[in-house]
Amino acid sequence: MTVFWLSTIGLVVLAVFLLWYIISDSKTNHDDALRDELNKALYQDRLEELSEEANEGLVDNQQDLEQDLKQSLLDDIPEQTQRQQTRISSKAVLMLSTVLIVVLSYGMYWYFGGLNKVQHWQEVSSNLPELSKKLMPGSNEPLTDDEMQDLTLALRTQLHYKPNDSTGWMLLGRIAIANRNVTTAIDAMEKAYRLKSDDGDIKLGYAQALMMSQEEMDQNQARSLLTSLMQEEYVDIRVFSLLAFDAFESEDYPSAIKYWSVMQRMVGPEDARFEMLGKSIANAQERMKGSVVPGQAVAVTISLSADVVADNNASLIVSVHTADGSPMPIAAARYPLGSFPRTVVLDDNNSMIEARKLSSLTDIMVRVRLDSDGNVTTKQGDWYGESQPAKLGDTVDVLVDKQY
User: Fold this and answer.
1) What residue numbers bound the domain in which 336 lies?
2) Which residues form the Cytochrome c-type biogenesis protein H TPR domain (predicted)?
3) Which CATH number characterizes residue 384's domain?
């Protein structure tokens, strides 16, 4: 702020100097002296002419004419008081103009320049450490909407001057997540992650931002980040929370129940979150029970053998076939990889042909494949498994243990 005011003072001083230079131009300061010199030269010339005319006998009253010439010279010389008044008038104009420049410059800035906003911006920027503490995990003082806006302004200011501040980008990403601003959240968290990819909080924040995206690639990357966090010596409870939410949204109810159960053990019965987690588990159990309609849907429980090494970016493809093992599926669905064992449910909404619904079958078999490249027509290197023939409406178990 000091630099700003010093620069404005410098500009005002420059404007006053230019005004002074214009008003007191050096040529105008010598006008009176130049006129005096010219009058004197004319006076001397005229005296010489009168002398010559007198010698030639052209004039008889030389003294009278010289006296008139002297009087004319005196009349043409400005009086001292008049010159003093002129100098005083110039100083008055200069002083008044200086005052007007200062008053108009700062007055117009105060009225049109957003001085209050600039001062607020400076105050918010200086208060960044205190506001940042309220955004950190474990803080008992939630940010108000106004404080959230102030913190965003302060962070953007700091990041303009310090673009390599990973913590600043992480905090900006958390604000965007809280405001459901997906684009800003992902961009900010990605910058933080590129600057400090080994930081657990940043990695978790980046995964949370990616989970908000509707793009499958972003969601798969989020799952990959969460899986890597699961390998750490200490696993943050928020990792399990995100995994549970993702599993529930993907209708992988057994996995959601598993993660919420782990969270319950972590917080303990004394924690207020314990009861809320219990309700979530009960909700998932009800969804799992009601998801299979006898004779109209099939529940498939999938597990992996110990030999399977699954790519975190792979997709899970589940297809229902006629009991004779026909390669053409009657119904199929693609899911994120998730965790295993897991249960998925297929019904008429997953039918491949409108004229032949899944519910029209009686005997079925199920195939499961881990698609590693996103192309269903290529199978080289993919792991797969298939069930024994079963009845529609039964729960079918499939072990993925073979590789193409």
Assistant:
1) 298-403
2) 117-273
3) 2.60.40
